[in-house]
Amino acid sequence: MVMQSFSYGEDERQRLDVYSPRSRPRGVMIFDYGGSWRDGSRRYYRFVGSIFSRRGFVVVIPDYRVFPQVRFPGFMEDAAAAVRWTLDHADRFGGDADKLTLMGHSAGAHIGALLLTNPAFLGRHGLVPDVFKRFVGISGPYSFNPLDYQSTAEIFATANPIATARPIKNVSGAEPPMLLLHGGEDKTVYPVNTINLARAVTDAGGRARSIVYPRLGHKGTLLSLVSALRWRAPVLSDIDGFVSGDNA
Questions:
Q1: 49-60 burial string, b = 16+ CB within 10 Å, else e?
Q2: 45 in Cβ contact with 31 (< 8 Å)
Q3: What are 182's strand-pairing partners?
Q4: Rg, C-alpha atoms of the chain
Q5: What domains does the chain contain, in order, with CATH numbers?
Q6: Is the pTM of this model over 0.90?
Q7: I need a labelling partner for 241 at 20 to 30 A (CA). Which of 100, 119, 136, 207 fits?
Q8: For residues 101 and 82, what is the distance between their CA atoms, to the nearest angstrom?
Q9: Positions in the chain short of pLDDT 70
Q10: Please, are residues 14 and 65 in contact by the beta-carbon 8 Å criterion?
């Protein structure tokens, strides 16, 4: 595995890391991390880049601007710009841009789901949601209304209307296949968010599968990717099967 860092914009938060496998890649994966739209750093998620690059993916992990530097849709604009950069440079790392997976955890899963359900963000870069072949959402707040919570109301006060910031309100059924994972003991983002989005997608004629792991909390879903914690739930094998096409 080789890791390199690049800029996709002029701001210091508009940087990303690319993890390239030593073997021939089978596809490209973009991972958007969480942090309540307020914090986070790509350097904390090197384990994600390492795990999936070992499994044959070129993995891209972008930073993005967060509150209070930006409010909605600033972080969405950055996420879309990182997708554009990835598609423009995938062949540089031997990646196949026609085999592009989007994955996110927590706020990053919200960002990813909104990229797919609200085409306006990718559209500004000449892209459409079906550039992605798969979406893996982990512990994402897809159906909550951010204006109902003091911790998020100011971040999303600029959404007009608020429905434009809620993946559940933008589902068309045309989204790429989704695997939506959640911990049954998650008290930060309740599992109903995953259940609701999966139902909305399938009711609209799309393809979505949800899995709720009984003993996992909010961070546990992501940390179960790590070898020492894989005994807790088959998160990695479920993702691997899905992105390989077996369970889409």
A1: bbbbbebbbbbb
A2: yes
A3: 212
A4: 16
A5: 2-243 (3.40.50.1820)
A6: yes
A7: 119
A8: 13
A9: 245-248
A10: yes
